[in-house]
Structures are given as structure tokens and as C-alpha cells.
Amino acid sequence: MGIWHASTIILLGYNYPENRLVGAFLFTLFTAAASIPHSYVGKISSSILPAASLHGAVNAL
Length: 61
What we know:
Structural class: mainly alpha
Number of domains: 1
Oligomer: single chain
Largest sheet: none
Radius of gyration: 13 Å
């Protein structure tokens, strides 16, 4: 989840160039919350493809 991206946020400032530590914390909270609809979509579809599509849509936003 967000911990996976923390190194990029802290070291490179990805999406949070001014507040890297706060950004890593907030991104972890966001990804924890976003895992709920992703899990639901994956469970009801019995496939990873709709969840992957949802992930791509979130990234596009």
C-alpha cells in the first residue's frame, strides 16, 4: 500500500515535494482507504483486471 511508495515520496518528493514525511503518511492513509473499493471490485468480479483498471483510473485522476 502506501508504505511501498514511501521511499519514492521521501527520497524524491514524488507528489509531495515540500512535505515529504507528511506526504508519505497521507499517501499511506489514502492507499489504505482506496484498498477497500479495490478489494470489493476484485472480489465481486473474481478477476484482478477490474481492480487493475480501477487502479489505473485512480492514477489518471
